[in-house]
Design a protein that fits this description.
Elements lengths: L1 H39 L4 H43 L7 H47 L1
């Protein structure tokens, strides 16, 4: 009998606790409904949500774009490293000196070609003068 009474007491306490929790839940639900209503009645709330969503979309696009740019940057950095390694290879070790030597040869050859053109022009002028002199001499003798 004591067991039954304890069981009944526990059930009553449990029922009381359930009712208290239901009351608390109802109060919280009412408070939530009140807050939601107040939220929806805020002036400009709808446009703020739309602006926030638009800003979040823009942020996500910019994050994606940044990721793409970072990826491209990584490729460029790796390409630079690769080219530096290639330039340090024996094949390209003295390329600066060889370039200077070939550049000097090329410029010297161009200068020589220009000098030859000047020389050829001077020879042509001398031939022309010599031809005129010889014609004058021939005319005097004829």
């Amino acid at each position: 009998m004591v067991k039954d009474q304890n069981r009944s007491k526990n059930q009553l306490e449990y029922s009381r606790d359930v009712l208290e929790f239901e009351d608390t839940i109802k109060e919280i639900e009412d408070e939530i409904a009140s807050k939601e209503e107040a939220y929806h009645n805020i002036p400009g709330g709808d446009t703020a949500d739309a602006s926030h969503e638009e800003a979040m979309n823009r942020k996500n696009r910019l994050i994606e774009k940044k990721a793409q740019i970072d990826g491209r940057r990584g490729e460029v950095v790796e390409r630079i490293r690769s080219l530096k390694r290639k330039l340090s290879s024996p094949e390209y070790k003295n390329v600066d000196r060889e370039y200077r030597v070939e550049l000097i040869k090329s410029e010297t050859t161009q200068m020589a070609a220009e000098d030859l053109k000047k020389y050829q022009k001077a020879l042509d002028e001398v031939r022309f003068v010599a031809l005129r002199i010889s014609l004058v001499i021939i005319r005097k003798h004829v």
